[in-house]
Amino acid sequence: MDEVRAVIGLSKCVKTGKLYGIRFEPQGNDWIMTWAFPLSEKAAAGEKYDRLTISGRFFTGEEYPGCPYCGNRYFFYCCGHLNCYDGHSKTSTCQWCNWSGELGGNVDRIDITSNI
Known about the structure:
The chain has one domain (7-106). Helix content is 5%, strand content 48%. The chain has one helix and ten strands; from the N terminus they run βββαβββββββ.
């Protein structure tokens, strides 16, 4: 099997609900967010992303630009999906399932799409 160089996770902006991609690159047992880019629903569907689970610790790289719509540099994980996060709000609403509530805990495993 080829070495994974990066994976793309689909995320939504908590302010606009728009879809975007986050590039995660492996660094030892950790995953570093290095890039984010706007993505239409049509383009995402056309990519036919494969399912992939990544485990470890997740960090924001220095060069990571954040959500392309609002600039948030972090994420929270809900219902198997990523949402951007400002890093300090106590509550938020998932743009995938409309769950709303208090955020907490650490993410140590993500079901990601796209192995590039």
